[in-house]
């Protein structure tokens, strides 16, 4: 060991650099796909200036539903590949949902004098995101219970 190196305490695991890079690659690949899907939604259903941003609301609500479904579903999975969670939840669905765009749209609506639309969008997004996560999680739990009882999902 070089004289300047500090030994790790007993039982301490050093980071697996190869493992870290594969996780980062999974997040990047998932994020690229999710971001491209969100961008595509914006191209298909553009929001005219000063109007309610239905596309971003739909993207965020559906993304939250899928996050709740996926992450709760993983808790009942028998085996989980170590890259599945970073690829899908952090990468794909994290790239798909866009709360930064949401805040910019609220700011732009307020700056454009569309206070009612901005406040409605603000409240609707929070409600839809929470309802989406809750619904996805509840659905995954119901499917898991049914599977345990021998029923089909």
From TrEMBL:
Give the classification, highest ranks: Bacteria, Bacillati, Actinomycetota, Actinomycetes, Kitasatosporales
The protein in question is named: Fluoride-specific ion channel FluC
Tell me where it resides: Cell membrane
Listed GO CC annotations: plasma membrane
Q: Which gene encodes it?
A: fluC
Q: Transmembrane segments in this chain: where?
A: 21-40, 52-71, 83-102, 122-144
The molecular function terms of the Gene Ontology recorded here are:
fluoride channel activity; metal ion binding
> Main localization of the protein?
membrane
Binding of Na(+), residues: 94, 97
Top-rank taxon of the source lineage equals: Bacteria
Annotated source species = Allostreptomyces psammosilenae
């Amino acid at each position: 060991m070089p004289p300047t190196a500090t030994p790790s305490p007993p039982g301490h695991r050093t980071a697996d650099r190869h493992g870290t890079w594969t996780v980062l690659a999974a997040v990047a690949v998932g994020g690229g796909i999710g971001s491209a899907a969100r961008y595509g939604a914006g191209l298909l259903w553009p929001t005219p200036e000063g109007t309610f941003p239905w596309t971003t609301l739909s993207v965020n609500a559906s993304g939250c539903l899928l996050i709740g479904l996926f992450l709760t579903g993983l808790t009942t999975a028998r085996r989980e590949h170590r890259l599945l969670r970073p690829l899908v939840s952090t990468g794909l669905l994290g790239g798909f949902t866009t709360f930064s765009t949401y805040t910019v749209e609220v700011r732009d609506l307020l700056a454009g004098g569309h206070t009612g639309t901005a406040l409605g969008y603000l409240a609707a997004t929070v409600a839809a995101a929470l309802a989406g996560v809750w619904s996805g999680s509840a659905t995954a739990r119901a499917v898991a219970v049914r599977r345990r009882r021998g029923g089909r999902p």
